[in-house]
Amino acid sequence: MPRMIERFKRWRFLPVAPSLVMTLRRDRLSEDANAVDSKTVVLAVLACALGVTAAGIAQLLTHLIGFVTNLFFFQRFSTAFIDPYNPQNWGLWVMLVPVVGGVIVGLMARFGSRAIRGHGIPEAMENILMNESRIPLRVTFLKPLSAAIAIGTGGPFGAEGPIIATGAAAGSVLGQWLKLTSRQRKILLAAGAAAGMTATFGSPVSAVLLAVELLLFEFHPNSLIPVAIASATAESVRAYVVGTAPIFAMTPITELSQSILVFSLLVGVVMGVASVFVTKVVYAIEDGFEKLPVHWMWWPALGGVVVGVVGYFYPATLGVGYGNIDAILHGAMLPQALLIFCVMKFISWSIALGSGTSGGTLAPLFTFGGGMGSLMGYLALQMDPNLGFGVGMAGLVGMAAIFAGASRALLASVVFAFEVTQQPLGLMPLLAGCSVSYLISGILMKTSIMTEKIERRGVHVPFAFHADPLSHSLIKDYATKEVCSLSQGMAVSSVFSQILNQTSPYVYSVYPLTDENGHYAGVVTREDLIRKAAGSQGLVGEFRRSDAVTVRPDQTLHAAQVLMVRHDLEALPVVGKDGKSLVGMISHTDLARAATRQS
């Protein structure tokens, strides 16, 4: 730590960095989890820097994808972000382009880092749950590069997944560099991920909700504020660079019909079933690749064969496909063409993703859901042209609902669809459709497309957030009042009989000591009495622990829990405000009773 501070001073980078770092390091000394404190301020400052970084990463990756696309499909040097389809120079050779991209990604994963495989968010979740939010530094560079190659060579993925993963990696690396705690690294990881999503779609609020629902696994002010600031910062940078227009503009929704609620609920049912189907197919394909008698390094190339063949006959399936989503929301695709496109896109995407290449899931899911919703809208309007809603509205509900069912990020799905279209009247049908899709998906499938891989490894992913009962329960309400205390002037030889004959309902490994006035004087452990004091002719006070800690009745059970773990104690003495009167003991048993009572 001193070496790092000296490095900061030598570089004259961020002059307040040493004091900021020390403020964060003091987190290990805190006894309670305050709503907000000085550490929240420091994390917010770091999150602001992450927001700028993620916005830069988004722009860099977008230009990098454009460069690869232009190089492979148009044979020119340009960073313009365009679709791969080139009707003036379209030959059988284009089927080899995704294969070449798959070979390169496979080599990068094999000799660089296997962590670049996958679609971004599940890998970030895995690092939070299994690796204390530690992501290797090389992933920060290899993930966007591999994603740019995979997508730029025709991979049917969105750019948002890799950007989110890279932003998360940047937050994790910053936390590791500053030697922060696991929880602080998690907050910065989530902040980087949220900023990455915001920088891609211009959706700051839904990005924060996505971080809460899929990454933070908590709803607490001192984690929510840094994530929100990172997202807001990324949005301000994005607005300066590309403007504030919605990424998926659609015909304005000016009124809602009486039947829109029923139709939205029906779309939600279909999307809930579809989200389960999509998840099952993707992981079935992954399982199929696992059984192939070839090294996993070559799987992305095999997936690229399918991408290339499908892309040759249906060029719209290649690349990120944001333009396809825009066309769906405008109702610009005829039903038959839309059906064929969705089927071909799904085949291409599911096999490519199952092969373990580097790509995203959000844009493809929006495409499938939007397409199916629009098809339902076409069908409903044929049955009754006076229903009062458009195909674009149906596509919007389907787009959000399938993501809600597949990811189990309900609120993020609703707000995302609103932010990327800026249609406030769409909130009611979105809420209805996404809720039903979530319900159906939850009934039919225990896991989600984000958690299936982690659950298979035996790691439980939390899906419900509750307030910690220990954080709002006071020690005075659960402490044991009947205490077996020892006088420090007592002879050791007479101690054992008192311990054996104690009437207290609990037998502790720690015993409080009192002085001649009955005031609290410290503690002695059973281990010391047995190992050190046995056979001694001295007094109990000679074996008093100098590092003893106490708690007050008005502190929370969470504070007691932290101290017990930190000092490896089974119980703690509870003393009055004067620090002298012994009023009870709080133990692990008391904590468990409190948690059980309030669950």
Question: What does this entry show, briefly?
Answer:
By secondary structure, the chain is mostly helical. Helix content is 58%, strand content 4%. The chain has three domains: 2-242, Clc chloride channel, CATH 1.10.3080; 260-456, Clc chloride channel (Orthogonal Bundle), CATH 1.10.3080.10; 469-597, CBS-domain (Roll).
Write up what this structure looks like.
The protein has 599 residues and is mainly alpha-helical. The protein folds into three domains: 2-242, Clc chloride channel (Orthogonal Bundle), CATH 1.10.3080; 260-456, Clc chloride channel; 469-597, CBS-domain, CATH 3.10.580. The chain has 23 helices and five strands. A three-stranded mixed sheet has the order 1-2-3. The longest helix is centred in the N-terminal third of the chain and has 36 residues, at 38-73.
Gyration radius from CA atoms, angstroms: 29 Å
CATH architecture classification of the largest domain: Orthogonal Bundle
Low-confidence region ranges: 4-17, 27-32
Calculate the mean pLDDT score and round it.
83
CATH topology of the largest domain: Clc chloride channel
Instruction: Say which CATH homologous superfamily of the largest domain is assigned.
Output: Clc chloride channel
Number of structurally distinct domains:
3
Distance between the termini: 41 Å
Q: Tally the helices: what do you get?
A: 23
Main sheet? 3 strands, mixed
What portion of residues belong to β-strands?
Answer: under 5%
Structural class: mainly alpha
SSE order, one letter for each helix or strand: HHHHHHHHHHHHHHHHHHHEHEEHHEEH
State the total count of DSSP E strands. 5
Give the neighbour order of strands across the main sheet.
1-2-3
- Estimate the helix proportion, in percent: 55-70%
**Shape assignment:** elongated
What CATH first level of the largest domain would be assigned?
Answer: Mainly Alpha
